[in-house]
């Protein structure tokens, strides 16, 4: 698998006054896709709650290259771009491309795993998270941290 991919469906409420997708909607699409991916890899909300951990973000950045309008056919491709060997820190990239594979925007997030009981970073990272990230597609420029 090259990436986790899905076609996006835009709503009227995703638009800004200039009739293109508002900046914050991109982040919402990225967050939703990350949760869908985690769920598909066994990191369901129930599994996270039972194991008392969850993902947290330190940085989230979007680079906008080409506007997206309501009727555009856009696909989001998601990959891991950086990962520490112990799984404690990671980066995920979401690329928004059209049918011709023209890049419209890129979201990059840097994150880690938080122990939800202790309210601090997990040490060690739960095995279920390590297995999930091992199964995730890596970007072409993937870096092992």
Shape verdict:
globular
User: Major sheet: size, sense and barrel closure?
Assistant: 7 strands, mixed
Low-confidence stretches: none
Supply the number of structural domains.
1
Order of helices and strands: EHHEEEEEHE
Radius of gyration: 16 Å
Secondary-structure class: alpha+beta
In percent, how much strand structure appears in the residues?
A: 35-45%
Work out the helix count.
3
Cα separation of the termini: 22 Å
Mean pLDDT: 97
List keywords for this structure.
3 helices; alpha+beta; single chain; globular; 145 residues
Would you write up a description of this structure?
- This is Acyl-CoA thioester hydrolase.
- One of its GO terms (molecular function) is fatty acyl-CoA hydrolase activity.
- The chain has 145 residues and is α+β, with helices and mostly antiparallel strands.
- It has one domain.
- The chain is 23% helix and 40% strand.
- Strands 1, 2, 3, 4, 5, 6 and 7 form a seven-stranded mixed beta sheet that branches.
- Strand 5 and strand 6 form a beta hairpin.
- The longest helix has 18 residues.
- The protein is globular.
- The model has no long low-confidence stretch (mean pLDDT 97).
């Amino acid at each position: 698998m090259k990436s986790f991919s899905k076609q996006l469906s835009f709503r009227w409420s995703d638009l800004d006054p200039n009739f293109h997708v508002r900046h914050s909607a991109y982040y919402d699409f990225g967050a939703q896709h990350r949760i869908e991916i985690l769920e598909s890899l066994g990191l369901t909300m129930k599994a996270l709650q039972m194991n008392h951990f969850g993902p947290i973000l330190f940085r989230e950045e979007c680079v906008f290259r080409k506007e997206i309008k309501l009727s555009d056919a856009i696909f989001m491709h998601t990959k891991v771009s950086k990962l520490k060997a112990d799984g404690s820190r990671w980066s995920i990239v979401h690329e928004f491309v059209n049918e011709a594979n023209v890049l419209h925007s890129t979201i990059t997030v840097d994150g880690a795993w938080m122990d939800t009981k202790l309210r601090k970073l997990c040490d060690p990272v739960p095995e279920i998270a390590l297995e999930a990230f091992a199964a995730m597609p890596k970007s072409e420029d993937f870096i092992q941290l």
